[in-house]
Amino acid sequence: MSTEEDLKIEEVISPQEERFEIWRKRAGFFLAPLVFLVIWLMPMPSLKPETHNLAAIISLVIVLWICESLPMPVTALLGAALCVIFKIADARAVFAPFADPLMFLFIGSFIIARAIFIHDLDKRFAYGVLSLKWIGARPSRILFAFGAVTAFISAWISNTATTAMMFAIGMSIITFLFKQEKETGVKINPGYATAMMLITSFSASIGGLATPIGTPPNVIGLGFIRNLLGAEISFFKWMMIGAPVVIVLYIFLYLYMNYLSPAGVREIAGSVEMIEREKAKLGGWTRAQKSTLIAFGTAVALWTFAGLVALFAGEQSDIYKAINSRLPEAIGAVVGAVLLFLLPGNERGERAITWSEAVKIDWGVVLLYGGGFALGVLSFQTGLAESIGRNLTALLPLSGEVGLLAASVVVAVLISETTSNTASANMVVPVVIAVAQAQGADPMIPALGATLGASLGFMLPVSTPCNAIVYGSGYIPLMKMIRYGILLDVFGALVIIVLLSLFAPFLR
């Protein structure tokens, strides 16, 4: 969610990849206007003028997103502005998605995540778990607990911030291991360092699937499903599918990492003491940490309360409808964030968060969501989505809900390898909904598949900021990231397809 400006960790890529990135960004300035002009000047008699114009604008935006020639939020704003200039709709209609309730879910949850980060609540949880007695000095258990903690934290705060924080902890563990190797002469398999770094990045990306706020593509997909299909997926209902996906994917990730890159020793002498020392540096619980925990707990309670009522009273009950209408997810996030400005901080008269800290959240993601959402909604209002759906239906070899689900997940995964997960969700989810409607299938499950698939992207350092951060450690050969990443991509796509097919009756 937040990029956390305080984290002094650079995303490092090889010189060859850096050259490719430079040319990719430069190419966008040439390709985007060219694609726009080709689409705009191409005869399309079946489309209304405003629909034709929108097709050209969306094509330009997609090319700029893929090439990242401009900052992605700037591209999203450019797309929205062009829609007004070319009279796709008036300014009020185009910019209405920027005031969508889900925007406030973003903002509120980002502020809560910011407080968790600045008060080291995430670090306290991480060292608390790693110091548990059952973990001890066994490297396989340390690896399991380390990845599990990363996945859990990432369900609530930024994947990138989680990776950066756990990267620092992981590097301290690796440094200690090789120091012990020199002192004791007991050889540690260098592959264990690779596993520790990769499980940091991969677990952070996986963990974001667990909750609607875990990663921006989740909120984007939910927004399209709600506004284009009129279907509500509550926080609790999302976790019914998100949590099982995370558990299955993480267990698979740990098993193959532990098998392919073991430490080569049964125990690591002194590791327990090292972790205890790091934990002791955090000291006792501060007032700000307690206040942040109360605000976070309140938000989670509000997010899940309506779902729990539905579980016992049913979604058609009056009490559930009354609670759900008064406590949508955005309200839980806003209430939790406001509490941070009311509850005490560490100094007299200080609050758990100040406005100067709160404004450091990633506003770019908020703007990217608004612009992408505006283009998606307009594509349906103008009939562009329907036209795309009809044409793609004739080309796709797959049909029916399961076929569309498989196609949507695979396409989302492939696109997420080449561009941001957020852009992948913005591009794929509306098209999936249009294709499903053109085929007369229920679009919700394929749309959910595309939403979840957009967060998979494990093969390359440039696939996600998480991958880039750990690649900079120097412990990850590129070919290992590709091999291990493609294995997780394939298995992740299969897990999403199978679990969504099984859980479909409970999600409608």
Offer a quick outline of the entry.
With 508 residues, the protein is an all-alpha fold. Helices cover 74% and strands 0% of the residues.
Structure in words:
By secondary structure, this protein is mostly helical. Helices cover 74% and strands 0% of the residues. It has 23 helices and no strands. The chain has helices spanning 15-41, 49-67, 72-85, 91-95, 101-118, 121-130, 139-154, 159-184, 190-207, 216-229, 235-260, 271-281, 287-313, 318-326, 329-342, 355-358, 363-381, 384-395, 400-418, 421-439, 444-453, 465-471, 478-507. Helix 17 (363-381) runs parallel beside helix 20 (421-439) and helix 19 packs antiparallel against helix 20 (421-439). The longest helix has 30 residues, at 478-507. The protein is globular and about 75 Å long. The protein starts with 14 loop residues before the first helix and ends with a helix.
Give a quick account of the main beta sheet: strands, pairing sense, barrel closure.
Answer: none
Mean pLDDT: 83
N-C termini distance = 28 Å
Helix run count: 23
**Proportion of β residues?**
under 5%
Give start-end ranges of low-pLDDT stretches.
1-11
Structural class: mainly alpha
**What is the radius of gyration?**
23 Å
Order of helices and strands: HHHHHHHHHHHHHHHHHHHHHHH
Please tell me what the overall shape is. globular
How much helical structure, as a percent, in the residues?
A: over 70%
Number of strands: 0
